């Protein structure tokens, strides 16, 4: 992509996950004017992973618009610690309290670096360019292999002291529920993530079509065909998400819940029961009537959001409608 112009200043954005490390130069209108991508090296060698980040940054530094870059924004799989500048992504075993911020700053010629969790970054993107645009109080969620999220309150992104605020996936909605890998019980993620939708269906006798894997997408296909076990598994996931959204609405008064990630592709199979359950959990006047809508930005949300979070933190350019 070689656009003829970019509206500056620019932010170099990094989206770091367990499978890929994406980079882009993002202009003040949210356009991606240069891109770079590397697979995330597997295994315990943290320096190899950093090597891939260095390659992405080197490619961005060679781009035409690099001289207009004034900061780097990173959205990373969590947990992150923005206060310490370190990351410990569950699915990047080579990085535990890895000093990502100073390493990236050095590789980017000393530019300021703003780190947030990927849920917060997705929220910044949806608020700037997507389904939460125009809302001053929003919860955005990613429902995928895990469940993450972030908050916009009073018109501003709320990353929290360490960049993890709004992590709705690990709020307990089932006090004596199944143990969650995080150490708690009955978390939203333990009930509503894609792998848990599939696991629950399998436990209750559902089987995927011959030759296909037991994924949430396969459960969704069966549910569309009317399979009662598949429908029940989606309904239970929707119920957990509704309880989490209701808790958030009651705690901080949100007006919209934006849901993205692979599981949200199930569409009405997820959203219809979710809205129904929400009407029973969010009952007080100030918590009722939350709009529940699908996310608008696709795979670029992490990059756009990492740039938006940096722009807001450093007051580079406005990222609200
Ligand atoms: Zn948990």
From TrEMBL:
Q: Quick check: keyword Transferase in the entry?
A: yes
Q: Which InterPro entries match?
A: ATPase_NBD (IPR043129), ROK (IPR000600), ROK_cs (IPR049874)
The question of whether Transferase is a record keyword is answered with yes
A Pfam family matched in the record: ROK
Q: What keyword terms does UniProt attach to this protein?
A: Kinase, Transferase
Which SUPFAM superfamilies does the entry link to? Actin-like ATPase domain
| One Gene Ontology MF term | kinase activity
- PANTHER family linked to this entry: N-ACETYLMANNOSAMINE KINASE (PTHR18964:SF169), ROK (REPRESSOR, ORF, KINASE) FAMILY (PTHR18964)
Q: Which family does it belong to?
A: Belongs to the ROK (NagC/XylR) family.
Quote the protein name from its UniProt record.
Glucokinase
- The organism is Actinacidiphila yanglinensis
Q: What is the lineage of its organism?
A: Bacteria, Bacillati, Actinomycetota, Actinomycetes, Kitasatosporales
